[in-house]
Structures are given as C-alpha cells and as structure tokens.
Structure prediction request, 808 residues.
Amino acid sequence: MEGLKIPFLFSSLFSILIISNAVDIITKTQSVTGNNTSVSSGGSFEMGFFSPGNSRNIYLGIWYKKISVQTVVWVANREIPLVNSSGVLTTIDPGILALVDGTSSVIWSPNVTGPVAQLMESGNLVVKDANNNILWQSFDYPCDTLLPGMKQGKNFVTGIDRMLSSWKSSDDPARGKCTYRCDPQGYPQIIMNCGSVEVFRTGPWNGLGFSYLNLKLNSVYTYELVYTKEEVYFHYQLVSSVVSRLTLNQNGAAQRWIWVDRTQEWVIYRSAPTDACDTYKLCGPNGNCNIGNSPVCDCLSKFVPQNQTEWISGDWSNGCVRRTMLDCHNGDGFLKYSHYKMPDTRYSWFDKSMTLGECEMRCLKNCSCMAYTSLDISEGGSGCLLWFDELIDMRQYSDKGQDIYIRMASSELVQQVGFNGKKREIVAVSLALLIGLLLLGVSLTCYLWKKKRKNSQLNREGNLMQNSKQGYTDKSQNDDLELPLFDLTVIANSTNNFSINNKLGEGGFGPVYKGMLEGGQETAVKRLSKNSSQGLDEFKNEVICIAKLQHRNLVKLLGCCIQGEEKMLIYEYMPNKSLDYFIFDQTQSGLLDWPKRFHIINGIARGLLYLHQDSRLRIIHRDLKASNILLDVDMNPKISDFGMARSFRGNETEANTNKVVGTYGYMSPEYAVDGLFSIKSDVFSFGVLVLEIVSGKKNKGFYHPDHHLNLLGHAWRLYKDGRSLELIDEAIWDSCYLTEVLRSIHVGLLCVQQYPEDRPSMSSVVLMLGNEGALPQAKQPGFFTERNVLEAAGSSANEVTISLLNAR
Prediction:
C-alpha cells in the first residue's frame, strides 16, 4: 500500500489527535474514530500520541501497528513534550504541518510548505509538493531507531548528518548522551560516542561488512555501505517477513532486534559492543586486544610497551612503540598481521582502483605511511587503504578479521625469517628485497644530496639552518629536516602567482595563501616576508620543531620551498579557518554547539599532551591561543604556528629567556614576569582557551558592568559563588550537557592557577575531561585582572621585554 495521504487543505482529519490530558486521550478519540490515538498508514506503522513508560508527558510518535508491544521508532517532539495541556497536529499558514499546544504555540514542525503529508509503509513520514517530490522526511532525522531503508550517514550537499541518538531514559525520549554515526573522515566507519567519550568503533567497511565483524549472508536482512561524492551512508533491507530494527540505547549499546510472533516479544539478534575488546582504544596506540588472553591487552608483534611500569600495572592507555625505530631511507618493509580488526581510519587514505601490490609500493614510497591493506576483501580483494598515524583500536580474532601489512625496520624483517625457521628460498627472496630497498635508499639519498647541494649556497645566504645557541650545524639540521622540497614554479602556479584573491591572511611570519596542487590537494602556503627578521627566525624554528611531528591535532607540514630569496612553508589547508573566527563572532558562534566545542577542547588537550610527553622532543608551544587553533572540514582542532616554540632535550623541564614572545591574555605569570617557561606555561594558555570556548568571550579586553576583572577573574568569582552557569555562552545553551560544561570550567580554572606547581599536567587534564571523578578545588588564577598583567610586566626584575602584545 502507498500509505495514508493527508491533504493540508483538510486539517480536520487531524482532529482525532486532539489531546486534553493523558486520561482522556482514548476516550475522546474513540468517540470520533473508535480506535487508538493514531493515524494508520494502512500497513506496518501508525502515528499518534503516546506517553512513554511511567511519564505523563505527551509525545507525537510513530510505532509498529501490528506489534502487540507498543514499540516507538520515531518521536517528533522528543525535546519538548506536551505537559498538562491540550494539543493538536494541524496546519498553520501557509500550509505548514505543525504540532500546536493549547496556547497555540508551535511545539514541533517540519517547517516546509507542501500540499500533502504521507505516512509511508516504511514508517517514513514525508511532506511532498504537488509533483510528488519529497520536501521533508522523518528518515532524515532519526531518533534511536534505524529502520529498513533508512540511511545512517552524511549528505555532503545538504549537510544533513543522519545519526542515531539514544533516549535519555525509558520515560524520556529526549536526546540522550550517546550517538551512533557514520564518520566520513578518512575511510568511513561507524563510531559510537557517549558524551565526549568514544565508546566503540566498527572499523572500516571492507566489502563484506565492517572489519570488527565480517557479517555473513543471512535470511533476515541485506546491508550495504554507499560512498559517493554526494553522500556516505550505511543501510539495510529486510529479505523476509521477519520484523527487525536496529536501536541505540541510553547505556551505549547498538542492538539488532527481531520480533518473535510465537512469544510476542522482541529478542536481541546481535549487539555491539560485545566484550571488553570492543572498548575503543583500550590497549592504546599499537596495542592489540585479544579476548582469549589474560590480560586482554598486549603489544603487536615487534612492538613493546611505551611505559613498562604502567603496562604491568594494567594502565595500557599509552600503548606501545616499535622495538626497532623505522629508518625509511635505509629500507623499511612490511610484516603481515592476520585476523585483525582494522585500525581507526580517520587519518587514512584510499584508492578503489589500486591492486594490493600497487598499494604496497605507494605506502613504501611515503615515509609517513605506517600500514596498508586491501580496501575490499570480497572476490579476491581490491583497492588500497593506507594509514598515516598511530594504529589505534586493533584487536585480533581467531577466525575472522582481515590482513594488514605494518611498516617495520628492515632488521625486524630479517629477524622474523630467522625466528620462524623459513625455508632457504624465502630467506633468499627476503634478502633480495632488502638489497633492493637498500639500493632504492641509496638512489634516493644521492638524489636528495644533489638537490641539497644545489640549494646549499642559498641556504647559507639566508642563514636558514644556523643556530649556534642550540648547537646545530648545517649538516645536522639538514638531516633533521627530511621535508619534501617544492619547486617555486609549482607553488606559484598553485597560488595563481600569489594572487590577492588567494590570500588567507598575514602574520608575523608573512602572508599566507591558499594553494591547489596539480593532484587537487589544497594547501596553505606561508611565505616569509623579505622584511621580517622575526619571520626568518620563525621559519627556522617551525621547520626544526614540527618537521617530524605527526598527530591528528597538530597541523601537518607538507613541505617547504627554498629558492633564491623565497622561503615558504606548505601546510595542509584548513577550510574552517581558526577557532577565534567562530567563538568570538556572534553570527558564527551558533555554528559551534557544545558537542563540537567539547570535541575541540579535548582535541587541543590531546595535541598538547603529545607535544609535552609523547613527541620525539618535549615541545613548549609558547603561543597557544584561539587564532592558532585551526579547524578542518569536520571541525577537528589542529594546533598551528610553531614559530615561537622551544624544544627540550633529555630531562629538561624549564628554561629562561630574556625575550618574552607571546600574546597578552594567554601568557602565564611566571613567563611574562620572569621569562620562565615550561609545560605548565602551555597549560595556563590552555586553561584560558577553555574558558574562552565555554564563554564565547576573549580574556583580554573582557568587560563586565559589575567589576573590572578579566575573563579569568570573572570565571573565578562565579566559581566561588557557585554561579558558574552564568559563564556559559548563550549560543550553546540549547545543546550543552551541563555536567560537561561545568566540569570544563572547573578544569579551565585548575589550569590557570597562579603557581605552576598547582596546575595539572596535560595528561591529568585529558583524564579529568574524560571521566566523572572528583576534581580538586581551584585556587586563585594568575593575572585575573587586566591591570595586574601590565603591572607585573612593568615591574619585572630581569628586564623582560614583551616583544609581541597582540595576536599576529
């Protein structure tokens, strides 16, 4: 059947849905229609009013018609119930479907004008125009249930992201804390979040199913992942008369249900997560979870725990590192790991047309490529999937999963052959491969040496690679660089000859241009200003600090261009500009709801943790601020601008400078006053950022009619008075989880405490943001008024100079 059509012209058809209170619903309706408070599609579903569980609130929903247990699959007014008032589903001018309460206030509406509303047999409520085109459909706005034919994924054209979101409780269908969405970043996979915590990840689609579970053909449903330029989504279709649905509950479990007529009940057919190893990132980077082992976590073969003491104690969060460091130019290779759930693909690359052999060569040529596998394992395998970051959230199975090839130093490849006692022929093949890789490395070295020799005179003229204070030589710094060198002609062509139309902005370093390389990759080109002595220092420092840093929350340096007097850095392009563009602008701030802001806070925290603890050198950024946090297409934060950064070696934890560089409002007291900087200086800046993100206000220049405190002082006063809610930006009130927001404010105040020893480390910050444990009381912040910043800087005992006052 086609379903019940509801012409907007005859809104009286909806009079059967008039509500006065929960007791009178059935009585009043029966007097009109003789059945329940619903409009039927004539098929599998019906629509009407209901009260969930023990609640007395009234909601408009859709449920199964022929199922004896009322099972609601969609709720229109899930956030705004009808409470102790009458209501009617009707039309308002100019022909817009609307749920109106007893005061004639609109509770819910699709907000489109069309002549027909129709409840389809699929359970989809649609609004159509005169030509039968769908203007709006409930399938685009799912609640906690995925029905057959519904799309779970994102439309890149309209921006609609169809994700499941749990009910708050069995009595309250309002949006809960858990979501289940198809993530299009990298290669698609489905990710479950509960609040800010990533709970579970399916792994990427491999042609047969998601890699965590190779779904087999069954008699209940078929399934498919569709990925085009316009959209990406997962969907399924029933292939029998069995009734089945997929739901997300408030405890963070995705469940496939089957209706059993014989017992008149729903039974669980499949559920995820299923065991401890389905917990996202349980064993940390490069860790392996095996539910058959005790404990369940160990390191992948050829990897060892990053911190042996923590690992033995059962803290696996820091994961594992390679037993032997990679040496790309001297010949790395790949080891095959079988029966694994594939790692997190949010920082991956893929090509559907490559063979596995071509995939291996593509990965081998890129020193940043950590692993590869077949994109599609059906019918013999095809396509290529590469990873460029740490291998996160892997687990091993005994009889399913797929193969992955992980990059290893050549010495580990030889050891594997010896330990496994392979045949002589295999040894010979491996040695031949090793020799070939070494010859390739020699060829690459000769090529790079010639290119460096060609530019050596230019480098000396620019004094680019000289830094006597840190003990670097030209040779050592050239060796450290290891960056692709772009030809000036290529960069000029990509930026339309540095056209003003391509200019993105300008800082202390010089102008920044948007570029488009021949392969279609968008870039941001920072061009050193010829008149900027500070810019030259920044260029040198940025290359040294960030060239080898790889983290999802750091902006990626793609290469540089050094030719004549031109010196340029080429970065990945960030289409959503910087954080300050959103949070400090009244018109843009609404685009960053609380989940996005909390995601940004956590991303910045993880990026800083990497710089302070997990990178090759301990890096102190020294200029962390909103304008230096860039946002990619999915609003993921990337820390940028390392021109002011300093690196520590060995056990160094603190340093002193007689030239303070940074931005007022973000600098810690000990840095601005005494020139002392450490990881706790960055923690202070992070705390300022957190309070700015929550409030939508700048610390420097903050004004309040009741006092002369800056943002830190204002937040501190509200915290002491138990009124921290007043700090929250109005733009996020409708989307915020109050416990998360208040916890973020508390953590922010802990980070900006006056004395460095009182501030938490970034590892503690990450833990505090990610759990619900008790937090210590915050102490008075440093620099909590504009005046005491200036007085402190002016009374410096060691003649510290503030060389940079405002954002660059």
Observations:
- The chain is about 25% helix and 25% strand.
- Residues 579-802 form a domain with the Transferase(Phosphotransferase); domain 1 fold (CATH 1.10.510.10).
- Residues 424-462 form the longest helix (39 residues).
- Confidence is low (pLDDT under 50) at residues 1-36, 415-424, 456-480, 789-808.
